[in-house]
Specification:
With 91 residues, the protein is an all-beta fold. The protein has one domain (12-89). 0% of the residues lie in helices and 62% in strands. The strands form two sheets. Strands 1-8-7-6-5 form a five-stranded antiparallel sheet, with no helix packed on it.
Length: 91
Amino acid sequence: MNKTPDWQVNNAKVYVGVNVDYKSDGAMVPRSIVLGDDKNYTIDKVLDIRPAASLKAGGAGMRYTVRIKDKLVYMFLEDDHGVGRWFMERG
């Protein structure tokens, strides 16, 4: 059984599924976040999009500031050699 080496584990970063709408100009608008057990959280509003680094979890990419149930949440879309992956900072 393969185990991820301890130096590759990042307990502050959580990869999540994201349902996204695409606008005609190519812009991505995230609509909901899907966590581990298929719990789906609707994004009420996208407040800001900018390149940024995650100071808590490490990594960088496009940071989306969104509102979910009156709570501000940072989501990051990182580019890993042409593959886009969404992550959030753990609690």
